[in-house]
């Protein structure tokens, strides 16, 4: 197997591009794909400070590495979700990566912020674990970006993530989610800009990058996501991709090309309230995150009175 560019020995085959690459040419290809995503969707500029949400997995750590190689100003943010040994390993890998490259890392704990772990929150609120986690992350990522004076939050969602998410949203016609499925969401309604610079790259490509760069990351999936529908949709997309390489890319970017026909761009109305608890913009008197936090607090009080 020869590299398509230089004809040296290839180390990775990409059927969706009908191409194979050696390590050096693969690195050039991957960096170019990230640059194209940043440029096409006007994600950020050299003067922007970027908060990179790092979980300890391959995608987020690789993203942090890539953005720094491209010369952007970054600060890492890790949220400890309180999921036993998994969260402990995730924090360890993230700290080791930051130390290795001399990068700034900010760490917060969900247990300290809410009073409970993801599993406890899900149980107390009757939400699926991934839903409880998502609400908490959105709030705390945004708060951290504002506190650390970052204009952008960057996450490590890749093409596989976005294609499987799109499949689920279409199967259930989740118009609210489809309208917002965009790799660059503007800073509106009290939220800082949120971007996904890896949206042109697959999970396989990110794993190859992490391996070639010697990035030590958490390999296994989050134990809270075992029954998540997202993994089921990802499995379906992988089966389709195996039979017809390039389908994920065509499906996802075909939607982005046609998105404006179904969901015209419009200025989002600013929330009418400030959350009475945390003072962040909210469409209700108390934001969703604070409702969760208050429910956890009430549960603890009830346990104390019945003990």
TrEMBL record:
It holds the Pfam family TtuA_LIM_N. Residues 50-218 form the Phosphoadenosine phosphosulphate reductase domain. GO terms for biological process: tRNA wobble position uridine thiolation. It comes from the Bacteria. The keyword Transferase applies. Residues 2-26 form the 2-thiouridine synthetase TtuA-like N-terminal LIM domain. One of its GO terms (molecular function) is metal ion binding. Zn(2+) 1 binds at residues 3, 6, 22, 25. GO terms for cellular component: cytosolic tRNA wobble base thiouridylase complex. Keywords: Metal-binding, Transferase, Zinc. Zn(2+) 2 binds at residues 275, 278, 287, 290. CDD domains: TtuA-like (cd01993). This is tRNA(Ile)-lysidine synthetase. It comes from Leptospirillum ferriphilum.
